[in-house]
C-alpha cells in the first residue's frame, strides 16, 4: 500500500494517483472531477473533499474515517460496498440516489445538503444532523434516528411505526409531515 500524508490535491497534481491500494491521512482534495472512478482497497483517514465531483464513485473495500465532504457532488454512491465508514460529514453537498443501507452512521452530519431518494433503511443514525437538508423520497425504514436533528429540513416522510425517533428535533411546519404516514391531515397545512 502506498501512503500519503498531509498532502493537498488539485487537478494538476493527481496524475500519479492510481486509487488502488493507496492510503491517505489528513489529505485535502480540491475541485477534482473523480466521477465514475473506482477506489479499490483505498484508505482515507481525516481527509477533506472540497467542491469535488464524486458521482457514481465505486468505493469497493475502501475505508473512510473522519471525512469531511464540503460542497461536493456525491450522487449515486453505494456506500455499502466500502470496507468501513465512520464519522462522515457532508456539508452543502449533493448525495441524491446514494445507498447507506444498514450502515452504522451514528452522529453523521448531512447538513444543508440534497439527499433526494437516498436509502438509509436499517441504519443506526442516532444523533445525526440533517439541518437544512432536502430529504425528498429518502427512506429511513427500520432506522434509529433517536436524538437526530431535522430542524429546517424539508420534504421528509418518516414512518413512525418502524423508525426510532425519541428526542429527535424538528421544525414547524415541516414536522407536520410526520403525520402524513399516519393519514392524519391538519387543516390549514
Structural class: mainly beta
Helix content: under 10%
- Report Rg: 17 Å
* Terminus-to-terminus distance: 57 Å
Instruction: Name the CATH superfamily assignment of the largest domain.
Output: E3 ubiquitin-protein ligase SopA
> Average pLDDT, to the nearest integer?
94
Would you kindly provide a brief summary of this structure?
Helices cover 0% and strands 20% of the residues.
Top keywords for this entry?
Pectate Lyase C-like; nine-stranded parallel β-sheet; 189 residues; elongated; 20% strand; mainly beta; 9 strands
Characterise the protein shown here.
- The structure is a single chain.
- The termini are far apart.
- This protein has two domains: 1-10 and 27-92, E3 ubiquitin-protein ligase SopA (Pectate Lyase C-like, 3 Solenoid), CATH 2.160.20; 100-180, Pectate Lyase C-like.
- Strands 1, 2, 3, 4, 5, 6, 7, 8 and 9 form a nine-stranded parallel beta sheet that branches.
- The protein has strands at residues 2-5, 8-9, 22-25, 28-30, 43-45, 48-50, 63-70, 84-91, 109-111.
- The mean pLDDT is 94.
- The chain is built from no helices and nine strands.
- Helices cover 0% and strands 20% of the residues.
- It is mainly beta and 189 residues long.
